[in-house]
Amino acid sequence: MGFAMNVLETLALLFAFSLGALVFVALVLFVMDRLQTEDAIRRNYPVLGRFRHLFSTLGEFFRQYFFAMDREELPFNRAQREWIKRAGEGHDNTVAFGSTRNLNVTGTPIFANAAFPPLDDQFAASVPLVIGEGARQPFTATSFFNISGMSYGAISKPAVQALSRGAKEAGLWMNTGEGGLSPFHLEGGCDVVFQIGTAKYGVRDETVACAMISCAQLQRIRMCGCLN
């Protein structure tokens, strides 16, 4: 009990000494600010006026990390800096699920769903892209926009069937995703990009624990005409 009381008394003395030292420093700064003639803010608001310079200096950092939006800063905003940083590090710099750009500004390009199909003179024809010109059987991509990877297990049979048929009519290719190639991908007759992944139902060797690609399985798929 006596030891605890001694500790409390020591802490109380330290607190009183610290408080007294703080008051003494504040008084010294008060006198200095009132006597100086270089800064009107410090002369009119002694001690408190010193915090203005501190907050002005720190304000840039607080605005950058806590208050400014991704596209508010100049000359380069946070979104642009992050894009350059990720590109320089070799990471993926695409942003999915919408944009932080203000789409209300005149001249901002946006993609909107068309309520009606365009007429022949309302769209620009894309130049076909030949992939693998020196290959035995090159592939010609006729469309700029295509269907990205969505596995069969993620979107179900009717969705794959509808996408396959729609891709055939629009002249697109369709990516299978990591869920493997199902008969429903081939049902519409569109070009199919077979994504080789290690998902549960993807292309793999079931006898290897690390899910390596099975060359024999790929050969069987090629023999059945699913791949070029």
Give the fraction of residues assigned to helices: 40-55%
Note the overall shape. elongated
Strand line-up in the sheet with most strands: 1-2
Number of discrete helical segments: 7
Describe the sheet with the most strands: 2 strands, antiparallel
Order of helices and strands: HHHHEEHEHEH
Radius of gyration (Å):
34 Å
| Chain-averaged pLDDT | 80
Stretches where pLDDT falls below 50 for ≥5 residues? 206-213
Strand content: 5-15%
| SS class | mainly alpha
> What's the β-strand tally?
4
Amino-to-carboxy terminus distance: 87 Å
When the domains are counted, the total is 2
Task: Give me some keywords for this one.
single chain; about 230 residues; mainly alpha; two-stranded antiparallel ribbon; two-stranded parallel ribbon; elongated
Describe this structure in words.
There is one protein chain. This protein is mainly α. The chain has two domains: 2-67; 129-223, no CATH class. Helices cover 44% and strands 5% of the residues. The protein contains seven helices and four strands, in the order ααααββαβαβα. It has helices at residues 2-35, 40-44, 50-67, 78-88, 152-170, 183-187, 215-223, and strands at residues 129-131, 139-141, 173-175, 191-193. The strands form two sheets. The chain has a two-stranded antiparallel sheet. Strands 3-4 form a two-stranded parallel sheet. β1 (129-131) and β2 (139-141) form a beta hairpin. The termini are far apart. The model is unreliable at 206-213 (pLDDT under 50).
